[in-house]
From TrEMBL:
Regions that span the bilayer: 5-27
Residue intervals of the Sporulation stage II protein D amidase enhancer LytB N-terminal domain: 62-167
Name of the protein in its database record: Stage II sporulation protein D
InterPro entries documented for this protein: Bact_Sporulation_Assoc (IPR051922), SpoIID/LytB (IPR013486), SpoIID/LytB_N (IPR013693), Spore_II_D_firmicutes (IPR014225)
Gene from which this protein is expressed: spoIID
Organism: Brevibacillus porteri
Keyword Transmembrane helix in annotation: yes
Keywords for the protein's UniProt record, in alphabetical order: Membrane, Transmembrane, Transmembrane helix
Amino acid sequence: MKRYLLMWFIALPILLVLMPAALVFWFSPEIGPVSQPTVAVTEPAIPAMKESASSMPVKVYRTEKKAVETLPLETYITGVVAAEMPAEFELEALKAQALAARTYIVRRVKEGKFDDVPSGGQVLDTVQHQVYMDEHQRRERWGDQYEWKNKRIQQAVMATAGIILTYQNEPIDATFFSTSNGFTENSDEYWEKPIPYLKSVASPWDIQSPRYEETVVMSTGELEKNLGVKLTQEASTNGSWYRIESRTTGNRVGTISIGGKEFTGREFREKLNLNSSSFTLDLRGNQVFITTKGYGHGVGMSQWGANGMAKSGKSAEQIVKHFYQGISLQVYSRVIPA
């Protein structure tokens, strides 16, 4: 009897310890194997060009071939960004250019007005619309720099794939140009059409552009012929041979009087084939020295301004929202069926 009591006293503590563990094992939820630490799978630095089967096709009229080529949207945008902006520009600037280029073509397709393109096409591959370079043209232009330049452009395009710029849920008129004179221009002061998101904004970064300031020289005879005016001898000698009548918000020439006629800054620029409507004139004997600031019409996004903003740490979204006031970013399929 003493032996049984002794065994009981030895077994009881053991049972008290093991029983709860057994109950936990049998009645707790199933325990799987110990999970391994999750390792994040990173995408390649340069993602491969991938487009969904539903990607919007773009019908590009190839001017040299005199034929229409149908391209997936992002393939087309790659060719446009490659042609319209230097691959050496900051990545965020290239992304901003991709957003503007994609918005331009989506707007055209949505409006469905292709009267300015040969039958079957939606867009030209020239400056009349957007310049486009195919892969062969890019290889020819870039030579042994093709690989890194093409990958850089692709990275910018695919990082923004499918995204466009909208105002009140409609694709904007995403105009862009090379270089400003320090300010962009109100749309109605160049095209006489007020567009709420195309307002004059400061762009001080453009001073870094090689096209920021240039001087052209022409004879008074050339000037008279191109403008259809006649400079009087008196006007040529007393220093009052022209007069700036008005300036725009973006500090360009609004109107100018010369040789008895008045021209808008845009008319003057186009008749004399000047870089910009921001200019000054200097008459020296029978020669006219015309100094321009900026390169392009000045409305919308300045490409050199975009690059300067990117260098200062601004994102592509911040860049486009600076140059296009009050806009939003949306997936294009919400605006136009894919």
